[in-house]
Each structure stands twice: as structure tokens, then as C-alpha cells.
Amino acid sequence: MDLFIAIFTGTVIAATPLIFAALGELVVEKSGVLNLGIEGMMLMGAALAFWAVAAGYPMPVAILAGALAGAAASLLFGVLALTFLTNQYAAGLALAIFGSGVSAFLGRGFGSEPIEALHGINVPVLSDLPLIGPLLFRFDPMVYLALVMFAAISWFLYRTKAGLVLRTIGESPQTSHAIGYPVIRIRYMAVLFGGAMAGLAGAYLSVAYTPLWVENMTAGKGWIALALVVFATWRPLRILLGAWLFGGMTILQLQGQALGLEVPSELLSALPYLATIIVLVLISRNRQMLALHFPASLAKPFRPAG
Questions:
Q1: Which residues, 6 or more positions from 33, have their beta carbon under 8 angstroms from its beta carbon?
Q2: Most exposed among 148, 163, 212, 243, judged by the fewest C-beta atoms under 10 Å?
Q3: Are 229 and 293 in contact (CB under 8 A)?
Q4: Which residues neighbour 206 within 8 Å (Cβ) at sequence distance 6 or greater?
């Protein structure tokens, strides 16, 4: 039972940064914009949040700083891709490289000293319940915030007029512009939101998941978040399930190494990424499903007439 609790809680925690980053990218792609720079935005959010905690700022301020760092980085992408109509693939890759370099520069002075991690919530009575307590009521606030953001984004996209407008812009920006919607402004807002979510994901990595600065600590999680959006066929619930799948594979490979399984450690470490690739291959075979939910104007530049 203790092993089950450890695997379950570890899965939820490992999935949390992926939920933040992938949900943010989902909103961006629903607007018709493709931002490949999630890795860079996560790293910048991680660096600034870690610096804020190390400098003595309260944890909420540090997390907010991480979100703002991600949003600022995404603004740079927005200027290149939306104002100057730079190729979105190139701009996103440039942002990923830029964020990696900036975070490495900022992290030079951090050393290897750990910081005080974000604490879990102790819910009176509920946290002490056998089995249910450790499974549901002992996580840190960011875990619950990720679930709230999942519910909020699902509601926004499919239950509000603003969400409908966003999805319409992702399908046909020309039509949306013709009926009076500010396509570029709305896309900027989506890009900034996606950047803030990636910054939150990075902040979670540096102040909660691994409260110790390590260069390139995202370890490819930004690219996994991008893959999750495709794996989910642009639907929030599937993003949540996909993040839990990847988180579960991550924890299982760690448990496998701890149990001393006679499997090369390199293969165990690659297990989460192999699982993601296999799932993506299986999903991509169903072209009808992909075409049904794929935003028609994704990564296509748009310049308002007149």
C-alpha cells in the first residue's frame, strides 16, 4: 500500500508542470499560433522563481515572478511571429534556445545550495484520513492550482463566448476579422497566457519539484508538453490524462531503479520518452481524429486587410 501511495502521489506531482505547460500551449494553438518555445519559457520561469526564493521573497511572489518571466518571453515571440510575421517554427525554436541561454546565465550564481521547497497543504482531519488523506489532501497548492486551471480552461474554451471566438480565430482568422474581432490582439493575449502557464510550470520545477538549481532542469519537459497537445488531439481532458501517463512512467522508472531491476538505467530513464513517442505514433495513425480537432489556421501567418 505504501508503494502504491508513493507511485500515485509521485505521478500527480511529476505531471503538474506538464499540465501547466500543455494547457497553456493548448490555448495558444486554439488561437491558430504555434509556439515551440515552451522549453525556453519554462527555464526562464524556473530561473526567476528560484532567484526570488533565494533572495528571500515570499513563495507566492516567486511563483508570480516565474509566470511573469514566461509571459515576457512569450511577448518576444509574439512580436516576431504576430507583428513581423516571422516563421512561427523558427521564432519558437529561437525562443527555446534563447531561454536556455538566459536561464544558464542567470543561474551561474545560484550554485548547488537548495532552497526551502513549497510545502504541502495540511487539511485538518482530511489529511489524517487513512489512504484518502495521503492520496488527495497532502499535495502542495500548485498541484491543486493545475487542476483548477484544467477546469477553468475547459469551461472557457467550450462554455463561453470568448472561448468560441478564440476557437473561431484558430479556424478562420479572415472570417473572424471580417465580422469585427481583433484577431492579432486576441492572439497576443493567448500567447501571453501560454507563456505565463509555461512560466508557472518552470517555477514549479525549481521551487517545488526539485528545489535545487540545475542548468537545463526542464530536461525536455517543454517538448513533452508540445507532444501532449497533439497526443490529446487539442482537448483538455486528454492533456490531463496524458500528463498523468507521462508522470506515471517517470515515477515507475525511478521506482525501478530504486528496486534494482536488472535493466540498464539508461533504458529506464528513457522509458517516459519512449512511451510518449509510442502513443504519438498510435494517435497519428488516426488521421480523421487529428483532422477533426486540428486548428485549421495553426502556424499560418495572418495580416489584417487594410
A1: 81, 82, 88, 187, 190, 191, 298, 299
A2: 148
A3: no
A4: 46, 47, 49, 50, 66, 213, 217
Distance CA 24, CA 37 (A): 12
- Which of 193, 224, 206, 20 lies closest to 114 in space, CA to CA? 206
- Give the C-alpha distances (Å, rounded to integers) separating 59 from 64, 65, 203, 215: 9, 10, 10, 21
Ramachandran area for residue 79 (φ above 0: left; ψ -120 to 50: alpha; else beta): alpha
| Residue-wise pLDDT tens digits, 105-114 | 988 878 777 8
Give the per-residue pLDDT at 85: 94
Residue 80 makes CB contacts below 8 A (sequence gap 6+) with 86, 91, 94
pTM of the model: 0.94
Q: Is the dihedral of CA 76, 81, 83, 84 positive or negative?
A: positive
Burial 68-101 (b: 16+ CB within 10 A, else e): bbbbbbbebbbebbbeeebebeebbebbbebbbe
Dihedral through CA 128, CA 133, CA 137, CA 143, nearest 10?
140
Tell me the percentage of the chain whose pLDDT exceeds 90: 65
42 touches 66 (CB < 8 A) = no
Question: What end-to-end distance do the CA atoms of the chain give, in Å?
Answer: 65
Q: How many CB atoms lie within 10 A of CB 225?
A: 30
Could you report the per-residue pLDDT of 146-157, keeping only the tens digit for each?
999 999 999 999
